Amino acid sequence: MTKPLNIGLIGYGFMGRAHSNAYRRVNNFFELPYRPVLKVVCARSAESVKAFAETWGYESIETDWRKLLERKDIDAVDICVPNNLHKEIAIAAAKAGKMVLCEKPLSMNAAEGEEMCQAVEQAGVANTVWYNYRRVPAVTMAKQLIEEGRLGRIFHYRANFLQDWTISADLPQGGAGLWRLDATAAGSGVTGDLLAHCIDTAIWLNGSINNVTAMTETFIKERKHTISGKVEKVGIDDACAFLCRFNNGSLGLFESTRYARGHKALYTFEINGEKASIKWDLHDLHRLEYFDHGDEGKLRAWRSIHVTDHGGEHPYMSHWWVPGLQIGYEHSFVHQVADFLEGLGKGQPTSPTFREALETQKICDAVLNSAKSGQWTDVG
Ligand code: SOE
């Protein structure tokens, strides 16, 4: 029998919507031991949070997250607020015995992340961090191909996450929607926001990273702050590029910027192995490009696999439509909820747990430290 799992959502921005959509749809497509119940959504403005609750079907609202944590009718807390609030809420939620689902990145830095790991581990509560791109079927399939040994020894890992939405110098920093430009709320710029995705996928697919050398740039040095109304120094990295060495001996090359005119969310990665290569592109997210050197010579070429087949061959797809019909960005969140609920039923953790996501945080710290020092830096 499907048991209810009462959700308390904190924050209702872009990610609050993506997660709410996932909770609402998951049981329509997956047979699971639990069914999320949208019990309460919390944000400071009662008027806006009421409107959100009506749109998404939340039963009640709170305007103080501490009140939400005191409620006995909440099983799991979903943190969708700016990064500087993750630690306090996650630790308090764990102490209150709630499961914690935290939006990425886990924390402002690795030291905070470590405290959060200890809190959920001491409380023994289920936890996960929303690195959703792992659960795009084509990306999950890349993982399967690597685990099957099809690439052989891996030589290169290359990833980009390119955007262009902050080029205007008139864009303010801080406040709803723009907190990602404010270092006090976000911790860092593209490193924590975008490269964190690339790093999470990379260490999942290709193992741990030993050391990095990085450069960052802040192109617009001052912006008006939405809250203070004053022009303030910009503390985030607008662009970051780094080289790294993976523990398996392969070389990594990563780049992210919000100044790549023409690119909105171009997340791509390519992996080159001895026997085969794979590449993936978020703008064409259901396709996995695959080159197999073992193919017969005259037919050897890059194949573009439309990862939409059933029969168990293509991850997650048997839960959706008919073979050949694709799914999109929002489904990666549905998959994460499905895996989380499945894991709860089996008493198994859902990757990435806080502890696994801490690894990404350590790499982000090493990248930012290396950019400051100009030196190769070991991942702590
Ligand atoms: C930033 O624009 C952003 O929304 C990130 O915060 C998300 O994590 C990423 O998936 C898309 O871009």
Salient structural properties:
Dihydrodipicolinate Reductase, domain 2, alpha/beta, 380 residues, 2 domains, nine-stranded mixed beta sheet, binds alpha-L-sorbopyranose, Rossmann fold
Structural write-up:
The chain has helices at 14-29, 46-56, 65-70, 86-95, 110-123, 137-147, 183-186, 190-206, 329-346, 354-373; strands at residues 3-10, 34-42, 60-62, 76-79, 99-103, 127-130, 154-162, 209-217, 222-224, 231-233, 239-246, 251-257, 266-273, 276-281, 287-292, 302-306, 377-378. The protein is built from ten helices and 17 strands. The chain has 380 residues and is α/β, with parallel strands linked by helices. Helix 1 (14-29) packs across helix 9 and helix 8 packs across helix 10 (354-373). The protein starts with a strand and ends with a strand. It folds into two domains: 3-132, 3-Layer(aba) Sandwich (Rossmann fold); 134-350 and 358-378, Dihydrodipicolinate Reductase, domain 2. The strands form three sheets. A nine-stranded mixed beta sheet has the order 16-15-14-13-7-12-11-8-17. It has a six-stranded parallel beta sheet with strand order 3-2-1-4-5-6, sandwiched between helices. Strands 9-10 form a two-stranded antiparallel ribbon. Helix 5 (110-123) links the parallel strand 5 (99-103) and strand 6 (127-130). Alpha-L-sorbopyranose is lined by residues 163, 193, 197, 265.
